[in-house]
Amino acid sequence: MVSNHDGTGRGGAPTATVLDRLFEVVTARRDQRPEGSYVRSLLDGGWAAIEAKVREEAQEVVDAARDESDQALAHEAADLLFHLWVMLASRGLEPAAVYAELERRFGIGGHEEKTARAARGAEQGKDDEV
Predict the structure, then answer these.
(1) Section 44-67 average pLDDT
(2) What is the CATH classification number for the domain harbouring 39?
(3) Which of 67, 92, 126, 130 has the smallest number of Cβ neighbours within 10 A?
(4) Looking at residue 10, what is its pLDDT?
(5) CB neighbours of 94 closer than 8 A, spacing ≥ 6?
(6) Residues paired with 14 in a beta bridge
């Protein structure tokens, strides 16, 4: 999507900068731990709570894509992205790492990328056996 100077794309729709703003809020909640914060409650629940929410939201995205409106799908996708950001923040991983991985994949076909990943995994397995 083409981004304008005000953080919007074509037709005034928000661009990925909203994801960066969201991550700032998530990390602020992680660091400041305000009472009543949903992010804090997820983090306090540990990995099991965060993992469960990401799995739940991913399933809701699939269900919405199959059975519901585009608006419902967008709503569920936003929930999933939010919970992914909480997961990243819990690990101390910045969205820039995700963006860099996506950028690395440009120009590489999906099948080609998966084949290369499988080959790397097989090589790593050999290294582990030595």
Answers:
(1) 98
(2) 1.10.287.1080
(3) 130
(4) 57
(5) 23, 88
(6) 8
Within-domain flag for 126: no
Note the pLDDT tens digit of each residue in 77-129: 999 999 999 999 999 999 999 999 999 888 877 677 677 767 767 776 654 44
The total of structural domains in the chain comes to: 1
Helix axes of 70-91 and 46-67: crossing angle, nearest 10 degrees? 160
Residue 7: in which H helix or E strand, if any?
none
In a domain, 25, yes or no: yes
pTM of the model: 0.76
105 Cβ contact list (under 8 Å, min separation 6): 113
78-110 burial string, b = 16+ CB within 10 Å, else e? ebbbbbbbbbbbbeeeebeeeeeeeeeeeeeee
What residue numbers bound the domain in which 68 lies? 10-93
Residue 83 within any structural domain of the chain: yes
